[in-house]
Write a structure and sequence with these properties.
alpha+beta, 2 strands, 43% helix, flat
Length: 51
């Protein structure tokens, strides 16, 4: 059974984000990809009780 939890990617380079998205699509990963531009935004996402 595969997990449906979101994947948190901390990356500020748009080209790198696209590369990761493409790679995940190629291996058929269905999880939502959440992109945070920096560590502070990632912590805000993780601290949000709705996530």
């Amino acid at each position: 059974m595969r997990s449906r939890k979101p994947i948190l990617l901390i990356e500020d380079d748009y080209v790198d984000v696209l590369t990761v998205k493409r790679a995940l699509k190629e291996i058929n990963v269905q999880n939502e990809l959440v992109v945070a531009e920096n560590g502070e935004k990632a912590l805000e996402y993780l601290d949000d009780p709705e996530n």
